[in-house]
Write a structure and sequence with these properties.
Number of helices: 2
Number of domains: 2
Largest sheet: 8 strands, mixed
Structural class: alpha/beta
Order of helices and strands: HEEEEEEEEH
Shape: flat
Helix content: 25-40%
Radius of gyration: 23 Å
Distance between the termini: 96 Å
Number of strands: 8
Length: about 160
Amino acid sequence: MNQGSTRDLIVGLFVLAGLIALAFLSLSVGGLSLRNNGGMMLYANFDQIGGLKPRAPVMISGVKVGQVEMIKLADDFRARVELDVDPKLQLPVDSSASILTAGLLGDQYILLQPGGEEAVLKAGEEIEMTESAVILERLIGQFIHNTNIEKAGPE
């Protein structure tokens, strides 16, 4: 090989390594992973999910233990959320699930709070105690409505 083709080969390998690194970062930021950290499916029904989306994190004490796999409408017109969590997790049957917002206007995630029962949830079971998302627009509307009633006074 001559000097020019060796240099072209090195530059080509460098560009290829950069493209692989860029693809890896794009997948990581997007929440996709080539390895499957979950494996145990749990279900939770909510009256209101707000802006919760598939692949949203599922957390316990600030540690990611899974992600939202799927959201669909149940027969009782409630949102049925499928959670893909770490199969090593030993969640008591009286655990609860809440939809929270990261920061003031951040993305929504599910917070699991372990209960105190001895029995644990198994794959395919449902988390009975749930707390729906707080909708900021509704809170503002209630505040404005209550303020208007107080200003009008009793009749």
